[in-house]
Amino acid sequence: MLLLAIDTATSAITVALHDGARVLAQESVVDPRAHGEQLAPAVQRALSAGGVTPADVTHVVAGIGPGPFTGLRVGLVTARAFAWARGLPAYGVCSLDALAQAAYEPRPDGDPVPPGATGTHPLLVATDARRREIYWARYELASDRRLVRTAGPAVGRAADLPEEVRALPCAGRGPLLYPDALTNPHGPLDVAAGALADLAVARLAAGENLDPPEPLYLRRPDAVPTPAKPVSASEPAPAGRPTR
User: Fold this and answer.
1) CA torsion sign, 53 to 54 to 57 to 60?
2) Which letter, b or e, does each residue of 192-207 get, where b requires 16 or more Cβ atoms within 10 Å of its Cβ?
3) Which residue has the higher pLDDT, 234 or 209?
């Protein structure tokens, strides 16, 4: 297996290669306004760092969000086009799951999680949804350390989350943006494609069905088609068009 992982759902443009056992290469650039310009070069650098060519890739996975519309589409279109061109299977993984996966990575002392957490190690992931809102999801670890999403993904104001949820250790940029509501920052700020790849490989190995590589938007886009203006019977016909 040689899996190419791509995510552009957060401020990071991130790409990784995974051989089924470990991450071989990862390239990440943090630039929330340059996903289109940065992604293709990042893919090229990852392939070069891994010492492979596009012909060596056997699987493709993309972070499906939720995330801002433009950036999210860049990653998904690139992943799908790469897979289509090479005749490869393409999968999707929730980008918030990848952030949680990275937040649960073992620390040097072996503890797999947010400081102070006990039992199932509850965790909140909150990313920037613009419009003064966050994309969020809540997680726990199963007894076998498998990642379990217990709520979300959803979108809304950080201050509107239940108090017990807002108090959880929180990965993502949410605590930076809304420190009064999310007071317990923990873990990475943005998605890392290496974590996305680790999660996809583990799920495939367990025989789980991954999501299709379709965007998880959660809300309607700001830009919508302008409705056609109704033509009144009393209005004159446009110039050059015969009247009846």
Assistant:
1) positive
2) bbbbbbbbbbebbeee
3) 209
Neighbours of 155 (CB within 10 A): 17
d(CA 21, CA 42): 22
3-7/90-93 β-pairing: unpaired
Which two tokens mark 75?
């990653």
> 135-181, pLDDT tens digit by residue?
999 999 888 888 999 999 999 999 999 999 999 999 999 999 999 99
Give the angle 139-142-143 at the CA atoms, nearest 5°. 155
Longest dimension (CA), the chain: 85
Distance of alpha carbon 213 from alpha carbon 215, whole angstroms = 7
Residues 132-148 pLDDT 10s: 999 999 999 888 888 99
DSSP state of 54: G
Give Cα 142 distance to the centre of its chain: 22
Alpha carbon distance 236, 11 (integer Å): 52
Give the 3-state secondary structure of residue 48: helix
Q: Measure Cα distances from 177 to 180, 211, 226 in Å.
A: 9, 29, 33
* pLDDT band per the 50, 70, 90 thresholds, residue 225: low
What phi, psi does 241 have (nearest 5°)?
A: -110, 125
Would you say how long the chain is, in residues? 244
Contact 193, 60 (CB under 8 A): no
- pTM to 2 decimals? 0.86
Q: State which H helix or E strand residue 61 sits in.
A: strand 59-63
